[in-house]
What does this fold into?
Amino acid sequence: MKRKTHGLFLSIAIVFFVMPLCGCSIFSNDSSGETESEASSVTYLKHCDVSFDTDGGNHIYSQRLTEGSLVEKPEDPTKLNFDFTYWSKGRSEYDFSQPVKDLDFTLTANWERINIETISLESKVFAYDGEEKSIAVTGDYLEDFEIVYENDSHSEVGEYIVHAEVKTQYTKRVLVEFSKNLSIVEMIDKYLYSYNDTTDSYTLESTLGCTEKDIVIPGFYNDNEHGYKPITAIGYEAFHCSAAENITIPSNIDTIDSAAFYDCDNLKVLTVEEGIKAIPDRLLVGCNYIEEINLPDTVTSIGQSPFIGCEYVKSFRFPKFLKYIPSNCFKGFTNLIDITLPDNLEEVREYAFSGCDAITSIEFPAGLKSVGDRVFYNNSNLISVKFDDNLESIGSYAFSNCTSLIEIDVPDTVNSIGSRCFAGCTALNSFVFGDGATVVSEGAFYECSSLKSVNLSPFCESIQDKAFYECTNLGILNIPNTVNYIGNLAFDDCLSLVVPNFPTELEFLGSQAFRNCKKVTNIYLPDNFQTVGYQEFNGCSSLVDLVLPEGVTRIDKYAFTNCSNLESIGLPETLKYIDYAAFGNCYKLNNVDLPSGVDEIGEHAFSDCQSLESIDIPESVDVIGEYAFQNCMLLGSVTIPDGFENISSGCFSGCSSLEEVNMNNLGSSIIYGNAFSNCISLKKIFIPKTVKVICSYAFAGCSGLSVYMEGSYSQTGVCIDWLPDDCTSYHNVSLETYNALS
It folds into this structure.
């Protein structure tokens, strides 16, 4: 007998008592006249340590209190399967309003057991075979319960009373008691029956000892006690008949319990005659070699996983009045080729045909309304699917990884297509959404690498995250103006995608939404846009012109990085912030007009823009990040705004054509390391007296540089190695003198 084993977990609270700390004398050397002996007279306050024993709950820290103060009531502790009730001292509930005395003590948590779930002990009849039989408590009960049985295991013919108690281990209190019958009976013939006085009929309980290949269940039975009565039911695991190859269930049977044919491992054919209405869960579990299942049209209900493991079935006809196909009905049936669907079918539930690799095409009847999750998941040979009108929804992953699926017709009535519905359908080349599909769900066409064309519903409102992720052959896509949401990575790595227009109602564009869309040539975002997000157009290498609308205030990290053919950008006056590497590696970008309201240019914002010839930094800019213009090799001149503070590390490093830097009116500033390193065309520089620090290597590699400083060398906190080794001259001059030299 299998039972739940319940471990006893003991919580041991260990309390360490610490002796009060010794005081120390304090001596005064003031003129108050107090003597040393008076000063060293110290009054010690009496302390009390209060600890908390949570009896298996979470830890509560102890409290050290002075005599006469109050214990601070802690938060209620917690403990699995229990509700906290109160703290007690000894046998009484503790009163937190009473002052403590000088004696240490412990407060103990009191708990009340949470009610358990419904559990049961069922009577059971066994056929005599000389082996030990037993029954046990079933149902959901908590792991720390203790179950005590009496008289529960027997191997001889007889009628026994089994008693069980379910206790809590902490208090040993009995929560539930059961007393049920355990019967072991001699087999009168090869079948064992039990009488049901409610239905006045018999149930076939067991076929122990059956050696027949062909079995037809009889219609009536007489046990000499209840008389000649019909047999109307087949019990749980009734057939233990490994010899049976053909079983016929007659029309008098109206009830079959789950796993009724368990262990019929040689069964080839099961025939159920007219009359029965319901097929239970897991009917044929263990019948792994069955080849033919015949159900009558009277069946209107089939339980979950009814034919689990029956992988040799090649064809199946559903009862014609059945309205649904149950969950896991033919999951993993690799030999199933031919299916006759019921005319009244309304619903196909999850995993119904998942893994049925032999099915190449399927056409659903007109009444179908719902296709559940993963219905055809991993059906690698499915080529075509046809739906009629009335279909309303297709579940998540319904056709995911159907790698041979080429075409699927979805009617206008469909209003919901689940996440990753067609993910991994690498042969699917086109798809047309019905008018009712207002959402393209998350990952709906994830990695559909052969998908070339998609017609969205004219009423589409949302394209969710990764909807067309890595659809590398998706070409021209017209996105209707009704779309207001395009999620993260929605078109990431759509290498062939051309988007003629962006919807006018677009409110949200997710990060990396069009990353590596290498055929996108123009981007015109709607006027209500505020942020160009993280990597939204990173790697759009065919993008030539870019105009961002008024209203955009921020361009996030890598937004246009690696747009290697981008030549010009139009930035709105509302722009405030350009983030990290926003235009990095835009090799052909030759001109940037920064709006007058920009506050910050982030790190690497324009690094490696090798064609950038000029940049006007507006007075509004407060921060230019590190390496912001690194390796802008055609940049000839730059003017730093008046009052600007701190030129960051590497800001203009590698600008090999930079000849003129106007930073004559800097605020109190630091020129950080490598700020102008390797600017080999820079031959002179004026550094105003407001520059307080020049860091190492600030002008490293600036061969032949002449430096003009306003003020003496010693007045600045310069590092000794800020000048290049071959600096040709160094001068202390005023701005007027420098301007005259220019």
